């Protein structure tokens, strides 16, 4: 799948050699969200987890042609989306959008919409009945973006709470 969305950028599946740039973009997301002090996936983690024998996620990237900020006229990755498939006994096939990000300098050009649309197309191709994701409650720009594209905030509407166990709690619970 190579989905040119305009002459200014393309959306394409990530390749193993993109993992360094994806790691950089993830770090930018974490810093933007105020989690810059947390350890994030490294280039090698991403390569293993996306392209190893048992992939945990898939990714798309947004690429712009060579520019002044891309040395040597090489294309530059300016955005990405990470997703995976899961299952619900109620709705069956579900696509989970784990991460979507476009560098601030490249926002407002339709790149985020194009990435999200390509993820949605993959979900439709795989007969998913739902795509879901989370968004920080203070990120009004993202909330408006998702709502503009048909996303519904089910936090209040369906009265869901998101729970988790981090590694320490998971390991402690598994030992009991």
From TrEMBL:
What organism is this sequence from?
A: Branchiostoma lanceolatum
Highest taxon listed in the record's lineage: Eukaryota
Give the matching PANTHER family. Answer: DIAMINE N-ACETYLTRANSFERASE, GH14572P-RELATED
Which Gene3D superfamilies did the record assign?
3.40.630.30
Task: Return the Pfam families for the record.
Answer: Acetyltransf_1
Instruction: State what protein this is by name.
Output: SAT1 protein
**Family per UniProt?**
Belongs to the acetyltransferase family.
Q: Does the record's keyword annotation contain Cell wall biogenesis/degradation?
A: no
Which parts of the sequence belong to the N-acetyltransferase domain? Answer: 9-170
Tell me the GO molecular function terms.
Answer: N-acetyltransferase activity
From which lineage does this chain's organism come?
A: Eukaryota, Metazoa, Chordata, Cephalochordata, Leptocardii
Keywords from the named record: Acyltransferase, Transferase
């Amino acid at each position: 799948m190579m989905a040119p969305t305009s002459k200014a950028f393309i959306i394409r599946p990530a390749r193993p050699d993109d993992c360094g740039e994806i790691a950089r973009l993830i770090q930018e997301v974490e810093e933007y969200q105020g989690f810059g002090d947390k350890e994030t996936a490294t280039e090698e983690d991403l390569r293993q987890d996306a392209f190893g024998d048992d992939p945990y996620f898939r990714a798309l990237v947004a690429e712009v042609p060579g520019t002044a900020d891309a040395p040597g006229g090489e294309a530059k990755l300016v955005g990405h989306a990470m997703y995976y498939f899961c299952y619900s006994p109620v709705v069956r096939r579900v696509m989970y959008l784990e991460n979507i990000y476009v560098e601030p300098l490249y926002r407002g050009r339709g790149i985020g919409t194009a990435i999200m649309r390509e993820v949605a197309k993959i979900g439709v191709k795989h007969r998913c009945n739902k795509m879901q994701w989370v968004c920080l409650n203070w990120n009004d720009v993202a909330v408006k973006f998702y709502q503009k594209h048909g996303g519904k905030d089910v936090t209040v509407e369906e009265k869901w709470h998101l729970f988790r166990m981090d590694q320490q709690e998971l390991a402690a619970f598994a030992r009991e």
